[in-house]
Design goal:
Distance between the termini: 46 Å
Order of helices and strands: EEEEHHEEEEEHEEHEEEEEEHHEEH
Strand content: 25-35%
Largest sheet: 11 strands, mixed
Radius of gyration: 23 Å
Oligomer: single chain
Number of strands: 19
Length: about 350
């Protein structure tokens, strides 16, 4: 039997939280000057990591092309020998790193430390943390975002030796997000995600009445980047050279005039998969700023789509997550209740529907 933590229903929900585990982290070391050779000894926090990924994280602000160049040229040494980019690091390895110069941002505020922030904890032990991420918060900095969950969490826990994201959630999406507290946990959990051995279910409120007979969406997706680095995803033919098969399982939870609440379980984890699948079939997610019905979104935000109820976010919530614990192998099933604003919208939809019933 899987171990179930928390719970969710359409109307009410409960959550259980584990006690916070104590952890320690070495204090951050200032970046060495550009003229200094650096020597690094690998401990358990970097064990098993590829050399290139370690350096990309260690040399913040150094262009990726430069990192790979110094590796190819043999300037990075492991135990006095040359190493390839895909070399796996082991405890006790000594790295000799050449001098590098980090780019100085034009905006001095760009290097300002992110404000520390804790997030609601659904589960925590020595191996991992599961948080309930609020909507509107990016999981990490980048693409015009100065910082996200992981940077703020590290600031809030300065003694933590290791904190890394296991997977991603869109900025607009709320719900369950895993953070590894050990390198071994990160590797084990990410392998489960790659093998699709996890169970991920999202609550999504869509426009229109969803056809109950449509329970499986099997449509290939193609992702592109525009000049500004913005991601765009669209449905393509199954035979498209750049298309990736994407499967979503859909179950109707409740329907009201003009809206349907769905449970969507993803069998593949493509970028914007649920959002694009649902929109392509004519039922965009309420409040989706990229693939949604923009006129409906404006009406929701102004409180005109559902009488007296303003709703200014995307209604997509990662409500359930099942995985094997990376240390014990125990099957863990976590649940995060719908956020208050989503519950309020559902209650308003129910009240509005009830008022229309003839008495």
């Amino acid at each position: 039997m899987p171990r179930i933590i928390g719970g969710i229903q359409t109307g009410t929900a409960t959550r259980k939280s584990a006690a916070n585990a104590v952890q320690s982290r070495a204090p951050a070391v200032a970046s060495p000057p550009a003229h200094a050779v650096e020597r690094v000894r690998i401990d358990e926090t970097a064990e098993g990591q590829r050399l290139d990924n370690f350096l990309l994280g260690h040399w913040k602000g150094v262009p990726k092309t430069h990192v790979y160049r110094v590796i190819r040229c043999g300037e990075v040494r492991i135990n006095r020998g040359r190493a390839a980019a895909d070399t796996r690091l082991a405890i006790g390895d000594e790295l000799r790193l050449p001098p590098v110069r980090r780019a100085s941002p034009a905006d001095p505020d760009a290097t300002a430390a992110p404000p520390p922030r804790e997030f609601p904890v659904v589960w925590e032990d020595d191996a991992l943390i599961a948080i309930d991420k609020p909507a509107g918060v990016a999981v990490h900095g980048g693409s015009g975002v100065a910082f996200g969950v992981i940077e703020q969490l590290r600031r809030a826990r300065p003694d933590a030796r290791f904190l890394e994201l296991v997977h991603r959630l869109d900025r607009e999406t709320s719900g369950l997000l895993l953070v590894a507290k050990k390198r071994s946990s990160l590797v084990a959990l990410q392998e489960q995600f790659r093998r699709r051995a996890t169970g991920k279910t999202y609550a999504a409120l869509v426009a229109g009445v969803w056809p109950k007979a449509t329970k499986v969406i099997d449509l290939a997706l193609h992702k592109t980047l525009d000049a500004a680095g913005e991601r765009h995803v669209r449905v393509v033919d199954a035979g498209h050279a750049d298309g990736r098969r994407s499967i979503s399982l859909v179950n109707v939870v409740h329907a009201w005039p003009g809206f349907t609440l769905l449970d969507v379980t993803i069998k593949t984890g493509r970028t914007h998969q649920i959002r694009v699948h649902l929109a392509h079939l004519g039922h965009p997610i309420a409040g989706d700023p990229k693939y949604g019905d923009f006129e409906l979104n404006r009406a929701l935000a102004r409180g005109k789509a559902v009488a007296g109820q303003r709703f200014g976010r995307m209604f997509l919530h990662a409500r359930r997550l099942r995985f094997e614990h990376p240390a014990s192998g125990e099957v863990i099933e976590l649940a995060a209740p719908l956020p208050a604003e989503c519950e309020a919208l559902i209650a308003a939809l129910g009240a509005e529907a009830s008022s229309r019933v003839p008495r």
